[in-house]
Recover the amino acids of this structure.
């Protein structure tokens, strides 16, 4: 690595390879890393009770993850609250009250942020390290490449 930049005649090469994708059966032989994460605070009790209920018959750690994931996919509905786009009204955010309401509603209705937080909290309750990293959605009209200089 250099901070000097490249000079005439310098070159470099890049080699990229896709990581090996393990099948579910292959993943069952592994456990998750034992790491220490900060304690989650003000977690609604329903998070732990649902995590326990959903994973009670899961024989491995990855099976617990998959069962919680399947529950959200099967019973959850998506809305980011854009009523103008024909979506159902949905409260934003991921506060303790919002997560409790998501998990106790007759029909789970939320956005990707709320489902990610709920799943992460459930996994952490089960001793599976998890965290949510927030990002951004690029505008559909934003340029896909940097402007030429």
């Amino acid at each position: 690595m250099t901070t000097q930049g490249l000079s005439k005649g310098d070159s470099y090469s890049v080699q990229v390879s896709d990581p090996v994708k393990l099948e579910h059966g292959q993943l069952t032989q592994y456990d998750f890393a034992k790491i220490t994460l900060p304690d989650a605070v003000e977690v609604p009790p329903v998070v732990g009770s649902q995590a326990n209920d959903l994973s009670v018959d899961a024989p491995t750690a990855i099976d617990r993850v998959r069962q919680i994931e399947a529950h959200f996919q099967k019973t959850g509905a998506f809305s980011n609250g854009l009523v103008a786009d024909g979506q159902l009204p949905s409260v934003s955010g991921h506060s303790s009250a919002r997560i409790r309401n998501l998990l106790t509603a007759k029909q789970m209705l939320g956005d990707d942020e709320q489902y990610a937080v709920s799943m992460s909290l459930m996994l952490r309750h089960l001793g599976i390290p998890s965290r949510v990293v927030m990002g951004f959605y690029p505008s559909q009209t934003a340029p896909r490449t940097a402007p030429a200089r």
User: Anything to note?
Assistant: The longest strand covers residues 76-78. Residues 31 and 61 are 6 Å apart (CA to CA). The longest helix spans residues 61-75. The helical segments are 24-27, 45-55, 61-75, 96-104, 112-125.
